[in-house]
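task queued by scheduler; priority normal; single chain, no ligands, no partner chains; default sampling; output format set to structure tokens
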Amino acid sequence: MRKRLKGVALLLTSLMLLLAACSGGGNSDASQNNLNTGTAPDDGSGIKPVTFSFYGNYDWLTTSPWGENEATRWIQENRKVTVEPIQSGGAAGEKLNTMIVGGDLPDVIFTDRGSSVERLVQAGQLVALDEYYEKYPNFKKYVKESTLNLLRSDDGQIYQIPNWYTSGQFGNGGWMVNKDIYNALGRPALETFDDLYQYLLMVQDKYPDVVPLEVGEKGAGLEIMYGGFREKSTSKFVTLMGHPEGDKLTSILDDPAYEEMVLYINKLYRERLITQDALQQTQDAVKEKVNTGRVAVMVESNITTYGAEGHRALTASHPDSGYEIIWPIHKAGVDRTKVFVSGFETLGWNVSVITKKAKDPEAIFAYFDWITGPEGQKVLFFGPKGLYWDEEDADGAPIPNEKYKTTPANERTDTMRKFEDFNWAGNTTFIDTAKMSLEALLSANQKSWETVAQSTVTWKTALDITEFVNTDPLPDTENGIIAQNVADIYTLAYAQMVQAKSDAEVLAALDTARKNTAKAGLDKLLEFRTEKWQENVKKINATK
């Protein structure tokens, strides 16, 4: 669970309200006058020429220049759409605050769902999109009604455009092993946490320069183990600080499965079977270890990305090396078919919002609607027609051409990943179906590592947790302040539990965390989250 900055949140809310008051809610009249002025072009795409600014509200995100790869160049030339990226410079929150204070919001903000969006809604800075969702065809076709209902703000309107939403199952979290090491050690059973412990000891003995178990940036993979100690559970419940018991959320700290997990993690840490700076390490440090083969086993929420990149790096010079996805490790006695590494939401990952600074918000929405449709998805995932495909099958999936088949898989994947960075309205169901259709036509050595991992393991071990979306309170509310205080207490206690010198120290830190979170108001927070959860359940059931 990552700490949030309460002071920054409160400052942002104040700035939003100040900006709304000073500007009369932004240039809403001008924006509304622009809503229906555009007409679609004659090319049948449903979009018209438009140029807009785009801000990715993430420290880690750098948006590449528009038109520098085959996909965005094709869009610029054939759909007359140009995007002007605004970079965060590694300080996304501060950059956004600066734009707000200066009254210089971008046309589009790419961000997480939740409080960051709702503050902008309350400040009157976003364009409501309901009429566009009704007017344009693709979101209407591919997004479930229940998903749209969950995107509605408290005023009943929709301001968000979902990214990587789905009507099926998907997930990218999981476990993988270094093939060279695993083969050399005789490929012992790796099913239970006891198996894993014994294997990590073997690695430590035979490969002293290798990390036995890699757990990702800031130890993100550690809490993923929770799903292996309790059936039908994911680390989402740790984030919520509560797990479901009937129709209520009860403290995660009182869950015996959580206690087992932290004791196991601490055991691995004490015996140096995981990196000693696991809770501090950067993504670049993790990638360097993975890409040079200095990792024996890895667990991570985005294992498909780490695995695909690491596999490409290792097989470039040694084709038989690389990484292998495995079924999730679990506690002995837990039904392996009920073990879930990651959770997925039909709403997908994050969202884009259109601000009232946009001169033609309908044109921008029309472009996003085109992105999420068949042509946009093919261009921004596989590349434009003529690159890796010339024809499509009866379901609209691209049929790989000779260049696709003859281009080395590592080179092809690198090229396609550059396109995907601009796929801001990802249609998971369409892409997954198209990928599987395309991969079925390839020989084993032509298939991508990522697609194989997804189809065989990671999709099957992802749990639908859509009903738990929108359960975080706004930071400047009473429950929001409680949530921040609980998060601060938990962050400290979790580090103490991971790095404790004995089981007794782990249990002492856990007991202290129980008492301190109770004093901070965890029960009240869980009541709030339970109420939001049950509201979601009603919305979902009403539209099934």
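post-processing summary
- Residues 1-42 have pLDDT under 50 and may be disordered.
- DSSP finds 24 helices and 15 strands in the chain.
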